[in-house]
Specification:
The complex is a heterodimer of chains A (759) and B (189). With 759 residues, chain A is α/β, with parallel strands linked by helices. Chain A has three domains: 13-298, NagB/RpiA/CoA transferase-like (Rossmann fold, 3-Layer(aba) Sandwich), CATH 3.40.50; 474-635, Rossmann fold; 649-756, Rossmann fold. Helix content of chain B is 30%, strand content 27%. Chain B contains seven helices and twelve strands. Classes of the chains: A alpha/beta (759), B alpha/beta (189).
């Protein structure tokens, strides 16, 4: 009796993805939810800080909770011993289950011993993890979910698609249909209050007749031997009170030391999950309430020891299952939790799935992550989710190998001379499709589209025109400016410094990034013009190559490490010989790769020499926007700017690496409004990924296309004439979308915008 | 110490609860008796409510208003009773919450299964923040005859937003929560 719109997690990933992409309702519901959740979450944290001061800011509280959870993970044996001792003293029975099977067996045996055939359940993700319901039902025991959403999902034979809002993917009409079928009489398809009332009546019978109540635990508090539960509906109180036997299913990761720490967890959990200050019911249970009742606590390992033993993945044990990482995730909003994860959904799902359900279960879902880093900014326990997802991706790629197209691209990128040759040949070879223009457009393919390689290209370019290779890359163009710098021939740039005395007595070594160099040399020239107008001496080291980000983001460590080492070595040498004050890049993605990702990479590989060198180098690296805002403008240097013409309206896209990794927000806006005196109109969700992220646009073009269209729609809704950002990856994606969709926006790098107004 | 009641009232009403500050038990009885939930002139109370200090004295006052008082027994007998009455150990101004801590199932189900739940709390037991509540938990859960095995912090009536994120009140627990904050000195008289 499964309805047609059900996605079964046991289906292959591709099938689930296909299904989800066709589900208009899913996307509408998630698309409506995400912006309102973001706004409410922000307000509810801001209100708390304004009421109680900086100790109650999101940042302070999450630092405290992180510390508390880390302590509990680090000292698990002691914290566990205290919890067990207190809980047992209060009359609870504790069982430690090594595997999912052990836990299921324990619950089943308990039912059998006591002759229980009806179990009521309140929300427990662990029971989903171990698939308890199926286990019991195969053995003739009925398990009824009493959380409203979970019950509807159960009736429809599907899993919750979201940890906090299990049926966010369903409409009231669908819910009405499912309930009608379940209770055997017509239930309103429109009236939600009537639907909720049905659930109340139906569940009353189960509550009064059940022999066992199964709950999860939001925290296991060692100080009291106490189980903490957080709900809104009131079903957990009934599940844990009415049946004579109460079974708690909880992972070891739910241990926390003290009640005070549990209060901090409550504050963060509820605000992060539903943006409420507190849920309706917060329940603290310490042993069975009266002697004739039983309370069993089943502690589930199922891969958690393995996580705890892993120096990086043990961080994921801090998770309090708030689902903020799902709520903020751009691809999650396109495909939902049945696809973006496996039982555990959202970013944390991509991280923990290999430990609970094996790497295979994660192979598809992890490929959806766009590496936008938004999840890490909202995680209430600071789990480094994006980098852990990349670790998972590395493991998947090791096991499954890279798709051919990526192998080809990264293999070439990692070999500078080969790449140079390929790019130059491509700039000629592309002529039949570019017709000498700036784009590879699917609509221009004509008869060529019958070639097999062109059909792949057409799939990638139909919704987003691809950029053409520049006939003269930036590395050639800088030679004419006399700022080219090559180790073999040191006289050119360094010899000129006495003649280029600027108002700012600074030298920057410009790292363009491969996209600017090969695809958008005019972007790089704009950067140089702006810097030189400020009196900064610019040099362009010829040895620079791709920083390796595309490979690292795709789980291709071999090529990624090679490119990281090349880049560090080339920049180190350029810096040393030119005595530059900064290494500047106008690509925030490259900056983040160098100053954050390399360090993580070399730490992980235990390349101590490289780590030390990278750390030293990273101190000199700065992005264009920060350089303007922190170095150029405060120096008092005035750029020769002309007054803008009327009718130019700017809207600004916050690139993920800029806002989520470098914390940039106001800087570019300040430049647009106060320096250039241009009108800026904020677009809705300016800080949501444009869809280029990582390599998603290659692997999941349907997802990337949707994110891109949302972004362009939001940008156009402001009435702006120019869309500005400070990251070439986004700019490439946005320009391609504008071109393919024949939209009217101009898309510019911030440096290009400034350069346009230079006298 | 600043008066915590206005904040408590504001936060509780924000989550759909009702709230009154009364000078004494007479006023409390009058408000309860006149409430819509008492249309059938009956209220369910936990067993041995009459022994509670100072709350037991409320029962004769309710009887005087013509209210029948029924002690909770089985869950089935309490399920969907129009009105129930219990007492809270403390209330939290920050969130508009009340802390219930009863070991006996018959006492707990009054707050879980009735349709309108009235809760009495002393004004002096109003604390500012959740942290103050948290600070009481170690003592309440300590082993011994006084150990509270089952503690519920209740913040407004039961609710769900599972269907289309539309807020609906009264899912599994009470549809209405009415807290009466009783001024201490008069209550102790």
């Amino acid at each position: 009796m499964t309805t047609h719109d059900t996605i079964d997690e046991h289906q292959p990933f591709e099938e689930r993805l296909h299904h989800a992409l066709a589900d208009e309702q899913l996307r509408t519901a998630l698309g409506r939810f995400a912006p309102s959740w973001r706004a409410s979450r922000q307000n509810v944290f801001a209100a708390e800080e304004s009421d109680y001061g900086p100790d109650y800011s999101f940042a302070s509280m999450r630092a405290r909770l992180r510390e508390a959870k880390d302590y509990a993970i680090e000292h698990q044996p002691e914290v566990l011993a205290q919890f067990k001792e207190r809980a047992q003293a209060a009359g609870a029975i504790i069982y430690e289950a090594k595997t999912a099977g052990d836990a299921n067996r324990y619950v089943y045996e308990l039912c059998r011993r006591k002759g229980i055939d009806l179990v009521v359940k309140s929300k427990t993700m662990v029971s989903e993890e171990i698939e308890l319901n199926a286990y019991l039902e195969e053995r003739g025991i009925k398990a009824v979910e009493t959380d409203l959403g979970e019950w509807v999902a159960q009736l429809n034979h599907e899993r919750p698609s979201h940890m906090v809002m299990p049926i966010i993917h369903k409409t009231r009409q669908q819910v009405g249909g499912i309930l009608t079928q379940a209770v055997g009489r017509e239930i309103s398809r429109e009236d939600i209050a009537e639907q909720v009332a049905v659930i109340r009546v139906e569940h009353r019978k189960s509550f009064l007749n059940a022999g066992m109540g199964v709950s999860g635990a939001n925290a296991l508090i060692a100080e009291g031997g106490t189980v903490m539960l957080v709900t809104n509906e009131g079903n957990a109180d009934l599940v844990t009170s009415l049946p004579p036997v109460h079974v708690v299913l909880a992972g070891y990761d739910k241990l926390i030391g003290t009640f005070a720490e549990a209060v901090t967890q409550m504050r963060l959990l509820v605000r992060s999950a539903t943006a409420q200050p507190l849920t309706t019911y917060t329940t603290f249970i310490t042993g069975p309430a009266t002697p004739e009742r039983e309370m069993h606590i089943v502690l589930v390992d199922n891969g958690r020891s393995e996580m705890r033993a892993d120096p990086r993945f043990k961080d994921a044990l801090r998770c309090i299952r708030c689902a903020a990482c799902a709520n903020i995730c751009p691809p999650y909003q396109q495909v939902g939790g049945h696809v973006f994860g496996y039982i555990y959904s959202g970013a944390i799902g991509l991280v923990v799935t290999p430990f609970h359900h094996g790497l295979d279960a994660d192979a598809g879902p992890q490929s959806l992550c766009v590496s936008c880093n938004a999840c890490e900014t909202v995680c209430p326990v600071e789990i480094p989710l994006p980098s852990l997802i990349l670790d998972v991706r590395n493991r998947v790629v090791e096991a499954k190998k890279l798709p051919w197209i990526k192998k080809l691209i990264f293999g070439a990128l990692a070999r500078p001379r080969l790449f140079d040759l390929v790019a130059r040949l491509a700039s000629i070879g592309q002529l039949p499709v570019t017709w000498g223009g700036r784009y590879v457009r699917a609509r221009n393919f004509g008869a060529l589209s019958r070639l097999p390689i062109m059909s792949t290209l057409s799939k990638l370019a139909s919704w987003r025109s691809l950029p053409a290779f520049a006939s003269r890359p930036l590395r050639d163009r800088v030679k004419a400016r006399g700022i080219s710098y090559s180790h073999k021939n040191t006289e050119n740039a360094t010899q000129r410094d006495t003649t280029r005395v600027g108002k700012l007595n600074l030298t920057v070594c410009y790292f363009a990034g491969c996209m600017t160099d090969r695809l958008y040399p005019e972007m790089g020239e704009a950067v140089i013009r702006v810097l030189e107008a400020a009196g900064v001496r610019v040099i362009f080291p010829q040895r620079q190559n791709c920083c390796g980000l595309p490979a690292l983001n795709s789980g291709d460590r071999r090529d990624g490490v090679a490119m990281a080492q090349q880049t560090v070595a080339a920049l180190e040498r350029a810096l040393e010989e030119s005595k530059a004050d900064y290494i500047l890049s106008a690509s925030t993605s490259c900056v983040v790769t160098i100053v954050q990702d390399y360090i993580r990479l070399f730490e992980d590989l235990d390349y101590r020499g490289w780590l030390k060198r990278t750390r030293a180098l990273a101190e000199k690296v700065i992005d264009f926007t920060n350089f303007m805002e922190r170095v150029v403008l405060p120096s008092g240097v005035t750029l020769p700017l002309r007054t803008p013409e009327a009718g130019v309206v700017i809207t600004y896209h916050d690139s993920c690496q800029s806002c989520n990794c470098l914390g940039l927000r106001s800087q570019a806006r300040h430049i647009v409004q106060d320096l250039l005196k241009l009108e800026l109109r904020e677009m809705p969700q300016s800080d949501v990924c444009c869809g280029f992220g990582g390599s998603t646009s290659l692997e999941h073009p349907e997802v990337a296309e949707r994110l891109l269209n949302n972004k362009l729609h939001n940008a156009e809704s402001t009435g702006a004439t120019v869309l500005v950002a400070d990251n070439p990856g986004c700019l490439m994606h946005l320009r391609g979308g504008v071109d393919a969709g024949r939209r009217r926006l101009r898309v510019l790098h911030l440096a290009q915008l400034i350069a346009e107004y230079l006298e | 110490m600043s008066d915590l009641y206005p904040q408590f009232q504001q936060r509780l009403t924000a989550v759909g609860g009702e709230c009154y500050r009364v000078a004494n038990l007479e006023e409390a009885a009058a408000i309860i008796a006149a409430h819509d939930a008492l249309a059938q002139k009956e209220i369910v109370i936990p067993p041995r409510f009459c022994e509670l200090q100072p709350w037991g004295a409320l029962l004769p006052l309710l009887s005087d208003q013509g209210i029948r008082i029924r002690e909770a027994q089985s869950a089935a007998s309490v399920a969907d009773a129009p009105a129930g009455l219990s007492t809270a150990l403390l209330a939290v101004a920050e969130t508009g919450s009340v802390l219930l801590a009863e070991n006996a199932l018959e006492a707990r189900i009054v707050g879980m299964l009735t349709l309108t739940h009235f809760v009495l709390v002393r004004a002096g037991d109003l604390v500012a923040m959740l942290d103050d509540m948290g600070a009481r938990l170690p003592q309440l859960t300590q082993s011994g005859a006084q150990q509270r095995h089952y503690i519920s912090l209740v913040t407004g009536p039961s609710r769900t937003a599972d269907i289309e994120r539309t807020l609906t009140v009264g899912v599994q627990g009470p549809k209405a929560l009415c807290v009466l904050v009783v001024n201490d000195q008069k209550a102790e008289l």
